[in-house]
Write a structure and sequence with these properties.
alpha/beta, Glycerate kinase, domain 2, 2 domains, five-stranded parallel beta sheet, 13 strands, elongated, Glyc_kinase_flavodox-like_fold, transferase, Glycerate_kinase_RE-like, kinase, Glycerate_kinase
Length: about 375
């Protein structure tokens, strides 16, 4: 029996690789002779870099960059030498997790460090880059990244703009002549987990600004500043991508990736499944087990278990989802290729206890699933 284990992380409990390992232990307890294949996944958000490195065997590298507030830090990125491909996770440089609650300031945080990661990848000889756009602390439309890559953004007096999204309101000139020429040959794909445009009520500032410290007044300021950035960009490059689905991802980094790096924007789980060759792995599998912290109706928007189920459905491969909890509307997932779904808890317990026991519960539930599946013909 071939079993493929491809979970996402279980937030605040296990990363995707640890979750897959816990599942594998349970499967082998039930069926020691099973052929078990682990393929940790993510949907482009938190943990995506870890999942890609684990699944592809990419080399973990580090670069000295600046965080969202301009402070130095060591950021990880992945290098898949055989494919000349770099894995760049925005959150490693400009992530919200590196800032304390009182440090979150969407007016002034910058993506400069993401540009520094691109420079490290170019120095390594990258011909392709997979940009992962979850977990940002920024709302600068990717302007900081452009500055690190050699662009000049100046006000009407010719002064360089200050870091952050608010300063874009003063943008007069966008000079791209200094962009690193190696970017022209770099193929960029951006993994997004939202379809929001850059501006407006569904835009980067309105929807995601509050979690980055933006007040109602800040949201209006940032939306107007990003609008100015989009206007000047359109004047320089001749087309307008402000309404592109996904342009609002990561504080407008989706816009910058598509507009200035020529990136294609795709759902994160699709890009990561492609990179990890999941379809080939599950083609002859008897059973696929996936999971993450919660399965509900919103999972249909592109969460890992649904991406896996949709891929497996095309191959008529059964998929079981193990989730920390099953929320409202989870039954809709059954129409997307999920064969069955189970919550992990084996009795009443607090959240703290559930988090502490996640590995144990995953193993036990995986064991039960495989015991039942292997005797289904009996």
């Amino acid at each position: 029996m071939k079993v493929v284990l491809c979970p996402d992380s279980f937030k605040d409990a296990l990363d995707a690789q640890s979750a897959a390992d816990a599942m594998a232990k349970g499967v082998l307890n039930a069926l020691p002779d099973a052929r078990v294949h682990t393929c940790p996944l993510a949907d482009g958000g938190e943990g995506s870099l870890e999942a890609l490195i684990a699944a592809t065997g990419a080399e973990r590298r580090t670069a000295r960059v600046h965080d969202a507030l301009g402070r130095p830090r060591e950021a990880s990125w992945g290098w898949l030498a055989r494919e000349r491909t770099a894995f760049i996770e925005l959150a490693e440089a400009s992530g919200l997790q590196h800032l304390g609650p009182s440090e979150r300031n969407a007016l002034h945080t910058t993506t400069f460090g993401v540009g520094e990661l691109f420079l490290a990848a170019l120095d390594a000889g990258a011909e392709r880059a997979l940009l992962l756009l979850g977990g940002s602390a920024t709302n600068d439309g990717g302007a900081g990244m452009l500055t690190a890559l050699g662009a000049r953004l100046t006000d009407r007096r010719g002064n360089a703009l200050a870091p952050g999204g608010a300063a874009l309101a003063e943008l007069e000139t966008l000079d791209l002549s200094g962009l690193d020429p190696r970017l022209e040959a770099l193929r960029v794909e951006a993994a997004v987990d939202v379809d929001n445009p850059l501006l407006g009520s569904r835009g980067a500032s309105a929807v995601f600004g509050p979690q980055k410290g933006a007040s109602e007044a800040d949201i209006a300021t940032l939306d107007a500043a990003l609008s100015r950035f989009a206007d000047v960009s359109a004047a320089v490059l001749g087309s307008d991508l402000r309404m592109l689905p996904g342009a609002g991802a990561a504080g407008g980094m989706g816009f910058a990736a598509a507009r200035f790096l020529g990136a294609t924007l795709k759902p994160g789980i699709e890009l990561i499944m492609t990179q990890t060759h999941l379809a080939a792995l599950i083609k002859d599998a008897d059973l696929v087990i996936t999971g993450e912290g919660r399965l509900d109706g919103q999972s249909l928007a592109g969460k890992t278990p649904i991406g896996v189920a949709r891929a497996a459905k095309k191959l008529a491969t059964p998929v079981v989802v193990l989730a920390g909890s099953l929320g409202q509307g989870w039954q809709a997932c059954l129409d997307e290729g999920v064969t069955a779904a189970f919550a992990l808890a084996d009795g009443p317990m607090s959240l703290d206890e559930a988090l502490a026991r996640t590995a144990e519960l995953l193993g036990a539930k995986s064991e039960s699933v495989v015991r039942l599946w292997s005797h289904r013909g009996g």
